[in-house]
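Supplementary Text 2. Reproducibility record for the structural model of the 213-residue chain.

All settings were left at their defaults, and a single model was retained for analysis rather than an ensemble. We include the record here because the model underlies the residue-level annotations in Supplementary Table 4.
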Amino acid sequence: MAGGGDSLRALLRAANALLQQRRYHAALAVIKGFRNGAVYGAKIRAPHALVMTFLFKSGSLREKLKSIAQATYAHSRNLAYFVFTYKGLLAAQSRLQGKKIPFHSFLAACIGGWLVFGDNNPINSQIIMYLLSRILFGLSRLAVEKGYIPQPKQDPFPLVAALVWGTVLWLFEYHRETLQPSLQSSMTYLYEDSEVWHDLSDFFIYNKRTDSK
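Retained model, structure tokens:
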């Protein structure tokens, strides 16, 4: 029994020593990137899928739990694959050219995005839209920082908020099919279901009556 414990401790020491080797750092960073992508994807998707599934999807409890598990797995897997691909390509380019340059990040991410997120499905669509909104804000700030556009004299955020909400509600009312299904469901709940009720039960307590009264 003691021999088994000694072997395990020796194995752990060897593994820790390996992790400290600088020459393996790039390869180990790729592996840990895969791990972090999987964990982060699960942490982000699981609560979101849980809320959206129980709010807007019908079906048995088993079906709902299966849907949550599938969405969580897909998000976790894709993010893990992307981080693995991105960091691997980044390390390969840096090794080939002897140094890291900004274009390496762009090219590696483009290839990873094409390979991992190129399939047009609900999970990938949500991730891309999430990133797109932040890219637009980031590019706007960068343009001001670099002097390509002048620094606004007043905070432009109220105008942006007004235009975003004005546009999305116009699309919902008149071109609903252009919006993502989960956004359609959310807006239907907020702006259409609030127009219908029969008594106090579905006015305050429930969104919709489940009986046939």
